[in-house]
């Protein structure tokens, strides 16, 4: 049946409309495809070219520059030095064993280094660079660069490493840095990614660890283009981190160097504190060690020589060492009695050489006794019986409270490792720690700085500064942070009777400057710089009744470990105290013989700011002092000791 003309025209119109719709859709698809192709081939050509060449973009951390440390006069104590090193990234290296084997044929790598690198590669994220070798030569860097195509993932870098230009002088104050260990990471909650970079250096002891976050700063990051071989092609962009803060210590490097040299032949410590603001101008322990040995990892041999030394060179004796303060504590017993109104300065006690308490005989150091003594004489001649008698009248609670008021038995806030609190015992303290009742004999022992009483050299220096000023002087070690001065720690008034403090100062003056004083041989002759002080000798062994009957064995005849500790505390000048100091010589014997001469020499060095004139010393000592000063100059050939001819 034939279609009519009208039906044919309608069918044509319907086919034309369908074709137009299909054609439009096809054109739209082709246009979109063309636009996409242009976007991929033109706009993103660079990115896909990198992918085509098997290149990729890596994000790498930029370790921050560690803050530097200076002495009070701007001398560098801890700085960062450029160090060439070679690193490897596991995800870029592929077969790390093969790469390390090739590298060992190019530069000298011992088996220990290779094994350590393999271990760190296994333990570290694949994208973190692992240090293979540090402090390598420029020739080694050149050889690695030339052979880069055969060493995928291996890159030579220039980093920063810690250096301590003053060597051993500041080892116990600054401490040192070393590679991050698993133990370090365990102590940190949510450690920063930069700490997981193998061989990254952080503070281990001393100021370096106590102020670690401040010194470390914040890491930056960079995006680098690397090829399939792991070789860095170019740096795309960089975000710099925040460098660590620079610190200025209160320590005077020249005085510190002198003190270390003066103590060098002893197992000893010394602290010098500025009475005006609490600044620690010297804080030295002997023997010492070179902190540079620890920066990249100390050898077993070197470490063993330090740990097996009976003089304990690794211990910071100034704040960690706790010693019975001996007779240097007698000022605390006397102040407790004076403040309680239990004695007057002219009140006397008879010393026959001993005092019997609860059936036990407590001996004076002078077997024949001192006879009748008042407060000043008892301190000048260091009579023990006088203080035994006071202790029975006062009781331990008042003595302990006075000791804490003067800074003993208190952990002072200084950024050094293992700062000890010491012990100013009370009845409750003994019950808690020993489960025993307090006895009168315990109080008698504490009255002369023996028994349970323990103090550090820093605490004894603080005690001396507080006696000298009547203020609650606190030790300050950080003078400024990034140039901003930290608050003075001169302290508020202690609220003590000034007349009682004057009595203590006069008695300490007599100890040094009266002919019958125990430290008269270590006096300062220069009138404007005269020193007040107190000697101390603390027993480290019990003397039996049999030994007393036969005659007490002299320190010189005992093994070193059984000899008494020697102590001396002081301040100067007497009229207007500038510095207070404490010296402890382990197993040195008597304080007047071993500790007082050292303290006098240190005090003069601090007051003059250089080697003092011989006229400041007693005439009989000048020839010996001249030879001693010459020896110390030889021990400190650099700027840490200034001789008279240079001053």
Helical stretch tally = 24
Number of domains: 2
Mean pLDDT: 87
The SS-based structural class is alpha+beta
**What is the global morphology?**
elongated
The biggest sheet, with number of strands, parallel, antiparallel or mixed sense and barrel status, is: 7 strands, mixed
CATH hierarchy, class of the largest domain: Alpha Beta
Full CATH superfamily name of the largest domain:
DD-peptidase/beta-lactamase superfamily
Q: Please name the CATH architecture of the largest domain.
A: 3-Layer(aba) Sandwich
Low-pLDDT residue intervals, each spanning 5 or more residues: 639-647
Q: What would you say this structure looks like, in words?
A:
The structure is a single chain. The protein has 24 helices and 21 strands. By secondary structure, the chain is an alpha+beta fold. It folds into two domains: 187 residues, Alpha-Beta Complex (Penicillin-binding protein 2a (Domain 2)), CATH 3.90.1310; 386 residues, DD-peptidase/beta-lactamase superfamily (Beta-lactamase), CATH 3.40.710.10. The longest helix is centred in the N-terminal third of the chain and has 39 residues. The C terminus is likely disordered.
Summarize the topology.
Elements: H1 5-43, H2 45-52, E1 56-62, E2 69-70, E3 76-89, H3 90-93, H4 96-106, H5 111-123, E4 129-134, H6 138-146, E5 154-163, H7 171-174, E6 176-179, H8 182-186, E7 201-205, H9 206-210, H10 212-216, E8 220-226, E9 232-239, E10 247-249, H11 253-263, E11 268-274, E12 280-286, H12 300-307, H13 317-320, H14 330-339, E13 349-351, E14 354-357, E15 360-363, E16 371-373, H15 375-380, H16 384-394, H17 396-405, H18 427-434, H19 440-447, H20 457-469, E17 478-481, E18 484-485, H21 498-513, E19 532-538, H22 545-550, E20 565-572, E21 579-585, H23 591-608, H24 622-635
Parallel strand pairs: 2-10
Antiparallel strand pairs: 1-8, 2-3, 3-4, 3-5, 6-7, 8-9, 10-17, 11-12, 11-21, 13-16, 14-15, 17-18, 19-20, 20-21
